């Protein structure tokens, strides 16, 4: 295949992988390919890296979403890398490695794609892979599941050092087709684009089958009497009655739009013994925190509680949530941390009824709900084969209030004055 086809092949692979929600969460993960082109300045052959840039989703990735970097320069950064304490500085250095105009802005994961010595690399966030990655004995389970075909990399926040860690693990395990990244996801590689994709799917499917065949029957514990899903009509009526109240509470700091989900996955989780302890442990994949916050608000009343009782309890729980969130911020914030972004929950779980999710617009609200469904799947998988053990709260905070993430938020267009507000127009039909 000629080198001109390398980006097209990468886009096609990314779109296929991103189209199946079992492979990665919305806008999660990134892919890359390396290849040789003729440098128009020197007429000499030069090696390039095409890698999904910052933002965007694999399922709809196009060529304009790829960052294009010179591999010789990217690899030379290893010699000036000042160490893990200052690894964030390396992101600015990526701009000095761009080829031509460079395409999309390079993401924090660019180091992993450049430093790991393989022509094609996929980094993904599949529920099955994260389930192993967040199991208390994830390293041993990865060995049991994959033998030496997939290696383990201890949790580390995404960045330059994680790229170096994965590159080293690959060097020490030349037979491996990829790695499980503790607390986070998976990375797979291949000599060709087809091989890389096949390796990604092999890891995702093997992990899912392992959980299926080795997992215990009721990972979330027994159904708690009274917390079963209400019949659909009753459930929807209660959701409709609660929706404006929940949205009002979730909009205390800033106007939010809401989304409601009462899928079987959600209702089943809400009916089980382990709902509250697991919800309290919070999500783990680095992508999740900015969308769902670390923890949801969980209503602790049975499904049959009246709307009035539930509203009273929601207000109490919301006040407690805000206090707890401010405590979490104060426990971990340093003088360099961005200011607290608001203490309202992004996810509200009501047993018997369903899940409300919130965001600054409709799409963000829906995606927050999708991410929490990912988190439920991850917790179920981890609890099936082991004990769910997400990364430490301090690490979660470091990601939620990461200065690089903050910079990304600041670059996003400011919401329009009426965004997130709902207007009721009456008498307009005359
Ligand atoms: Zn990731």
SSE topology sketch:
Blueprint: H1 6-19, E1 30-38, E2 45-52, E3 66-70, H2 71-80, H3 89-94, E4 98-103, H4 110-115, E5 120-124, H5 127-133, H6 138-146, E6 150-153, H7 160-172, E7 178-181, E8 185-190, H8 193-214, H9 232-250, E9 257-261, H10 264-270, H11 275-281, H12 289-292, E10 297-298, H13 307-332, E11 347-350, E12 354-359, H14 362-385, H15 393-400, H16 403-411
Parallel strand pairs: 6-7, 10-11
Antiparallel strand pairs: 1-2, 1-5, 2-3, 3-4, 5-8, 7-8, 9-12, 11-12
The chain binds zinc ion.
Sum this structure up briefly.
The chain is of the alpha+beta class. The chain has helices spanning 6-19, 71-80, 89-94, 110-115, 127-133, 138-146, 160-172, 193-214, 232-250, 264-270, 275-281, 289-292, 307-332, 362-385, 393-400, 403-411; strands at residues 30-38, 45-52, 66-70, 98-103, 120-124, 150-153, 178-181, 185-190, 257-261, 297-298, 347-350, 354-359. The termini are far apart.
